[in-house]
Amino acid sequence: MQSPWPGALWRTLLILAAAAGLGWQAGHPAPGLALGATLLCGWHLWRLSRLERWLRDGCRRRRPQPDGIWGEIYYHLQRRRQRRRDDTRRYIDTLRQFQEAARAMPDATVVLDDADTVLWSNPAAEDLLGLRSPQDLGTRITYLVRHPSFVAFLGRRDAQAVCDFPSPVGGQPLSVRAIPYGEANRLLIASDVSRVHRLEQVRRDFVANVSHELRTPLTVIGGYLETLLDSGDACAVKWQQPLRSMQHQSARMLHIIEDLLMLAKLEGQQERLPPRPVAVPGMLAAIAEDAIALSGEQQHTVRVDADPALWLCGHEQELRSAFSNLVFNAIRHTPAGRHVDIRWHADARGVHLEVIDNGDGIAPHHLPRLTERFYRVDRGRNRERGGTGLGLAIVKHVMSRHGGQLRIASTVGAGSRFACDFPAELACPRTSGGRAA
Ligand SMILES: Nc1ncnc2c1ncn2[C@@H]1O[C@H](COP(=O)(O)OP(=O)(O)O)[C@@H](O)[C@H]1O
Ligand SMILES: [Mg+2]
Questions:
Q1: Would you say 191 and 175 are in contact if contact means Cβ atoms under 8 Å apart?
Q2: Ligand nearest to the CA of 331
Q3: Which residues surround ligand 2, an ion (CB under 5 A)?
Q4: Which of 53, 150, 212, 371 counts the highest number of beta carbons within 10 A?
Q5: In angstroms, what is the span from residue 246 Cα to ligand 2's centroid?
Q6: Which of 349, 336, 339 is nearest to 304 (CA)?
């Protein structure tokens, strides 16, 4: 488009020249020029005032249609306004489509602000979380969904965390995530995971039932093999080697079954028994003795550095199983004659058990998978060493049931450090009478 400025400039110059010419004819060119400039100024002011009035009225009145530079200004303002109107319409359409899509979602979707106030929720949020729209908009979600795990989960503000709790409406299991967006808003998505839970239950029951069914025949086979080997019978002496191998293998299978049953028990027990004070220092001393017995001729040194006054509120059998797993692993994966350190202490971040060895170490790519069932770095060798591949899975479960976590650090050839971190509130100092407070 051609620029309006040359025309506007020429017109202004022409008016000023005409005014100066008329003034010159009257014998006063300068006042003539000044009068011309004043008139020009006055005309532009009048145009400005009309523009201001038109804008003040919200551009609702008919657009004035002057020529030249003012016409251009009106034209551009009008175009900009039209574009903004189109954009707004497009945004509203998009928003409507988003809302309809979110409404159709089977998952409960809730928009929260920085104070966890409900800004928007879809109909599934009413079915799964009991949130009514619009009645509950503007209310803090923790006043409406009060399950303690959910309240604690929201408070943690961890974008990666997932919270599982029963629906306050139908009791079905829900899995909730809170995804941060914008400045401090969060999008809460709650899914009904009944189907997944049912499948998990079927799997757990299957493993538990198979393990139960296998335990009895294996115990009988093991018992007969032992009797046969101890009998001194000529046949048993002749077949001693294969019989010993059969006894070893049946003992190994029994060990796997015991571990599978332990895992099934840990997974299956939803409601926990009340925690009791556990004398961990004494337990670690006993585990260290068992570890030395396991080491046998390999002559490992096992050092225990435990705070004698530090007990833990928890479940003794589970803790014993987890701790002994870590210590026995350290013995199995550390060359003969080296040492294994067991530390038990508390600091501001919590209560910690550390099992440190200077053994084989583990390559970094294995670390994230170590707690999977039957995951072994070197299958053949670990089987020989008497492992089931279930130990660390048990440790992980025990830790999660105590609200803690397992940390693994390792360097190939230098050794490994397995740390169990428990929340500080589980510490219970021993009283002078030997009982925990
Ligand atoms: N202290 C350790 N040093 C080196 N490797 C280890 C150590 N502890 C565990 N591992 C590795 O992790 C694998 C899984 O351990 P775990 O679940 O206890 O099974 P396993 O029954 O084989 O001991 C082991 O097979 C071994 O490869
Ligand atoms: Mg193990």
A1: yes
A2: 1
A3: 325, 329, 387, 391
A4: 150
A5: 22
A6: 339
